[in-house]
Predict the structure.
Amino acid sequence: MTEPILIAGELVEGSGEPIHLENPKDGSACGIYSTASLGDLDRALQSSNGASDSWSNIFPHERARYLYKVAELVDRDSEKLANLQMHQNGKTITECRAQSKSCAAIFRYFAGVCETQEGAVTTPRSNNISMTIHEPYGLVGLITPWNSPLTMDAQKLAPAIAAGNTVLLKPSEVTPGVGLALGKLCVEAGIPPKLINVLNGNGSQLGSAIVSHPDVAMVSFTGGTSTGKKIAHLAAEKLMPVALELGGKSPNIVFQDANIDEALIGVSSGIFSSTGQSCVAGSRLFVQENIYEEFLDRLINIAESYKIGDPGCESTEIGPLATFRQRKIVEDYIYSATDNGGKILAGGSRPEGLENGAFFEPTILGDIDPRSKIFQEEVFGPVLIILPFKEEEELISLANNSVYGLACGIWTNDMKKAWRVAKSIKAGTVWINTYKLLSIANPFGGTKESGLGREKGREGLGLYQEQKTVVFSI
Ligand code: NDP
């Protein structure tokens, strides 16, 4: 059976080329999804025309009720959603279940923000009352990647709808299922159907057509930096605002005075969880010279002891990469690192006994030149590079030696040093004595080539709104 697309709340067969999915666990076929042609995109935009006007006129506390209902439905379908994601991107069932819960929590959070968002009455500078109110853009495009659709799609859908917009979600071709399922739940929750469009399809054609279309007033994108730049160019042509959550090459820094046991857990899960396919993966590790050898030995032991295998098995810690193509990308990065003098200290190969799937061992590389590709570029796989450092100053310059600025981890018991370093590192998020501790309540995004704008947090609603000043003469 071919899965439909969702146009103005109606399930229809798209007229684009269908997507044939492959389960990364073993290469087996796992579904066919129809895709939207450019004609379907036009139809979606026409059918949704004006829907945002009536939705945004509903009082925020009433809009919030629909979002609470979506959260309930996500909880109801939690196990189904977790399995859907697992089959399409190979994430472990444990992580998928946790993300199903987060998905519901994201809808709840933005229901709360929607209900409690305040405008402002500004201090007058003449005889007037001036107010700032928030209005939706109207029709927004939401373009998402494959690594965590349960949270990435929800992080865009929930605030965009709560803010009063019509949405046009284009999920990744690798994971078309979750976005479609969430779109259906939004309709089931009673959100006016004309507001909800989920158009699966190819990024370079359908994705860029969404960005360029004159009726789309804002785009929120999560994905790779090179795609983000293309989207920014297209958006500039029509002077349209964009939010870009892009890639990273985040430093994780271990000082000699750190709690080593805790740092080892944080560093290893910071890179190897989700098989390294996380934008905030702590993929560059800097360890202070005095503890370097001991830390590395223990880290190698951890990397070699992970249970790799069937993502559906609860004891599995590391599943496959999301696609065979992604594994090839990871392998090419490793060849390029070793060609440049890098040394494989752990992993570096496909694990034995799992030949049918897109599996790859947790890998640690040493002897890395900071000018090399492996130091500078995002791998998006279970690959950690490790470098020693002597002093704080040298460390800060090494850590900031990147076009990216998404996240950073600092491990130390000296809080003054932690604060100093946190302030010196160019990153959207800094974790101290923890890593990858993400919350929908914290604004999230990158500096430099890691992106533009901040999602999540109370301000995450404002991303999908414009401010309007209203002045009453008195
Ligand atoms: P891509 O940039 O390849 O794709 C992301 C989305 O953009 C997909 O839906 C894709 O469509 C679409 N797309 C591709 N080309 C275009 C285009 N020209 N115009 C419009 N849309 C387009 O990223 P991946 O899916 O490979 O995801 C991995 C990347 O995402 C990594 O770099 C990672 O760091 C980043 N990421 C960032 C996060 C953050 O919050 N900062 C979070 C998670 C991931 P399709 O694939 O269907 O062709």
In short: Residues 143-147, 170, 172-173, 202-204, 207-208, 211, 222-224, 227, 230-231, 245-248, 279, 378, 380, 406, 446, 451 surround NDP (CB under 6 Å). The chain has a mean pLDDT of 98.
